[in-house]
Write a structure and sequence with these properties.
Elements lengths: L11 H15 L6 E3 L2 E3 L20 H10 L4 E10 L9 H8 L19 H4 L6 E10 L3 E8 L2 E8 L2 E6 L4 E6 L3 H6 L6 H10 L5 E11 L2 E10 L6 E9 L5 E8 L7 E9 L17 E4 H6 L3 H12 L4 E3 L6 E5 L8 H13 L2 E5 L2 E7 L4 E5 L3 E5 L3 H10 L2
Parallel strand pairs: 8-14
Antiparallel strand pairs: 1-2, 3-4, 3-13, 4-5, 5-6, 6-7, 7-8, 9-10, 10-11, 11-12, 12-13, 15-16, 16-20, 17-18, 18-19, 19-20
Helix pairs in contact: 1-2
Length: 405
């Protein structure tokens, strides 16, 4: 990572410690969640009211980043509220189904079907990328974690206990079982679910295109915290600022807020409404499939050829030429679909007209295409099948496409 803006001076000796702290911070990574045709980094956050500004010792941005990197919380339990507003049009649940289907897991069919299970975590947890959700989380070291997604009159739980990983959907009474080394659980981790997950990704993005400062204190979930503010220095990014409430005692992020450069409410909001760092009761991680529940063995399903896996492999092959152009917050992912642009209104009939109505038609040296916009991630699909996507403005995408000619 490159220099961080701060109002405090840093001596040469402190600089060495700072660089070490930056290297520790850089090891944290959260995989991206896929939205539409683009790989999009999604931030999450709840609109939690802060209760006062505690009087805490002054720290620099560098020291606070080092504190986050050194944080090693092993035991906790609490409640996290997540709200995401990407500004997508209301498609009657289609966007949620799209996200689930693109996870590529064996249970990617809505509600679960003969191709998979409604309890498959790689499909179920993609629901977190839209709307408002409440989670209960618990952890006891690296081998025991539990996450429960609370729904209307139902609950979905993902339990990791030693070598076993269980997913249980109470609504359908379906169970998904796999081992900790199975790929479905790795795919489930692609959806960041806690403020720490999101902060890890934000710190990874810190470089010389970024301003990082400490902006006072706050109290979140009854705990004293510092406010860390991360902002792009460059024009053209859709990210306005990332604000993280960092627990003053443990260094663990308690709240993560991402606001857009266009202003208005947060794109996403994720934070603890209640948290304790005591060891959870061992029974928290116990699970036995309920009587009559349908149990899907994920390790076996992952070996069998199925439609979801074939679709995933096809997309991966199609994106084999994925490149990243630009730097910092203005980075843009681009790949060539091989001439498979969007269907036109004439060629694609109703489908072509519908897709075209969701985007803005643009022209440039590259030719013509359609820009699909959210409050955070935008994507340009050219008529000849090239894709440009990133957390950048429409103008930045057109410039990138022109420059590639």
């Amino acid at each position: 990572m490159a220099p961080i803006d701060s109002d405090d001076s840093t001596t040469a000796g402190e600089g060495e410690g700072l660089r070490a702290g930056r290297r520790r911070a850089a090891r944290y990574v959260v995989p991206v969640a896929v939205m539409g045709v683009a790989a999009a980094t999604i931030g999450l956050v709840p609109a939690l009211a802060d209760s006062g500004d505690p009087d805490l010792p002054k720290v620099t941005a560098e020291q606070l980043i080092e504190k986050i990197a050194a944080s090693d919380v092993q035991q906790l339990s609490g409640t996290v509220k997540i709200s995401t507003d990407l500004g997508l049009p209301d498609l009657g649940g289609l966007e949620s189904g799209l996200m689930s289907g693109m996870s590529g897991g064996p249970g990617s069919g809505p509600g679960g079907d003969e191709q998979g299970s409604a309890a498959d975590p790689s499909a179920k947890l993609t629901e977190l990328v839209t709307g408002t959700h409440t989670l209960r989380v618990a952890a006891d070291g690296p081998d025991r974690q539990k996450l429960s997604l609370l729904e209307n009159a139902a609950e979905y739980s993902l339990i990791h206990d030693g070598k076993d990983v269980w997913g249980y959907d109470s609504k359908s009474n379906e169970v998904y079982h796999s081992t900790a080394s199975g790929s479905p659980e790795q795919r489930a981790k692609e959806v960041p679910a806690t403020p720490k997950d999101l902060t890890d990704q934000a710190l990874k993005a810190v470089d010389d295109t970024t301003s990082v400062t400490v902006d006072g204190t706050a109290q979140v979930a009854g705990r004293d915290a510092y406010r860390l503010v991360v902002k792009p220095k460059q024009d053209g990014s859709t990210v306005g600022a990332v604000t993280v409430a960092v627990d003053a005692q443990t260094g663990m992020p308690l709240k993560f807020t991402l606001t857009p450069s266009s202003g208005g409410a947060a794109v996403v909001d994720a934070g603890f409404t209640q948290v304790t760092f005591a060891r959870p009761d061992a029974s928290t991680f116990d699970f036995t499939p309920p009587a009559g529940a349908k149990v899907t063995e994920g390790d076996e399903a992952a070996k069998a050829p199925e439609h979801g896996r074939a679709a995933e492999d096809g997309l991966a092959q199609q994106m084999g030429g994925l490149e990243v152009i630009g730097e910092g917050w203005n980075s843009i992912a681009t790949f060539d679909t091989g001439g498979q642009g969007l269907p036109t209104a004439s060629a694609g009939g109703d489908l072509g007209g519908f897709l075209g109505s969701l985007g803005d038609q643009v022209k440039g040296d590259f030719g013509s295409g359609t820009v699909f916009k959210t409050r955070l991630v935008n994507a340009l699909i050219t008529d000849d099948g090239k894709v440009y996507a990133g957390a950048v403005t429409k103008d930045a995408l057109v410039k990138a496409a022109d420059a590639a000619q």
